[in-house]
TrEMBL record:
Source taxon at top rank: Bacteria
Residues covered by the Metallo-beta-lactamase domain: 18-220
Alphabetized SUPFAM superfamilies for the sequence: Metallo-hydrolase/oxidoreductase (SSF56281)
UniProt cross-references to PANTHER family, sorted A to Z: METALLO-BETA-LACTAMASE DOMAIN-CONTAINING (PTHR42951), METALLO-BETA-LACTAMASE SUPERFAMILY PROTEIN (PTHR42951:SF15)
Protein name: MBL fold metallo-hydrolase
Source organism of the structure: Niallia alba
């Protein structure tokens, strides 16, 4: 069976939106993967309790990609924490997260007047004032972070240019971010509406076939444990034909 010590998938439900950040830790470090929408800090702190952790225990935050529901509460957490936090992201996502480039999918300049008017006041405000933070460590494909036996960075572009997924070697857990979605234990490709390059996204899913994956954590849809490798193979096959 998979060794699941030191890794916990969190579930946050807020405003009829459910997300699954992940926490990985060992004796020295505690790493949070993704931070929800702006205003999610309290919820994150509450669910971290499941792993007997709180925001004060964090040593770092890893951002899988620039989308607003992944970077949203990063600035709040950085402001609230008095300890030093290492912030990790893929090199191609850094200019967006740091605010040097507008976020690809929520750039107000890209909306038609009609699309803009359909947004809630909260989203209008958030898109006009996107969360930003300094990234301290730039990541690349195939790099391994030395935490809890090692997590390998897999560059999985398509949903965004610098999207990364993570493979936790000890437990065989793939943290897929938004490269995969899950519905009732079934893995699915990302939503084409929010994935500018679907072809590249499917090629990224193909990269997963090289890893001995026992379970997948989807940010949207949670943990999938049944026939994971078979499911991944059929996603790649279906799309290639
Ligand atoms: Zn996304």
């Amino acid at each position: 069976m998979a060794e699941l010590k030191g890794i916990e998938t969190l579930t946050i439900e807020k405003d009829s939106f459910v997300i699954h950040p992940t926490l990985i830790w060992d004796e020295k470090q505690t790493l949070l993967i993704d931070t929800g929408m702006p205003g999610y800090m309290e919820e994150i702190n509450l669910v971290m309790d499941k792993a007997n952790k709180s925001l004060e225990d964090l040593t770092g935050i890893l951002i899988t990609h620039q989308d607003i529901n992944h970077i949203g509460s990063l600035p709040e957490i950085l402001t609230a924490c008095t300890q030093h936090l290492t912030i990790y992201a893929h090199k191609e996502e850094i200019p967006y997260i740091e605010g040097d480039l507008p976020l690809l999918k929520t750039n107000p300049a890209k909306f038609t007047e009609e699309q803009w008017e359909e947004l809630s006041d909260f989203l209008k405000f958030t898109y006009l004032h996107p969360p930003k933070a300094q990234v301290t460590v730039s990541l690349e494909d195939a790099q391994t972070l030395d935490i809890n036996g090692g997590i390998e960075i897999i560059h999985t572009p398509g949903h965004t240019p610098g999207h990364i997924s993570l493979f936790h070697k000890k437990s065989g857990t793939l943290i897929a971010g938004d490269t995969l979605l899950a519905t009732n234990g079934h893995l699915q490709p990302p939503n084409p509406v929010s994935t500018p390059d679907m072809e590249l996204a499917i090629q990224s899913i193909e990269k997963f076939l090289a890893y001995p994956i026992k379970q997948v954590v989807c940010y949207h849809g949670g943990i999938v444990t049944e026939n994971v490798m078979e499911q991944l193979q059929s996603l790649v096959k279906t799309k290639a034909s």
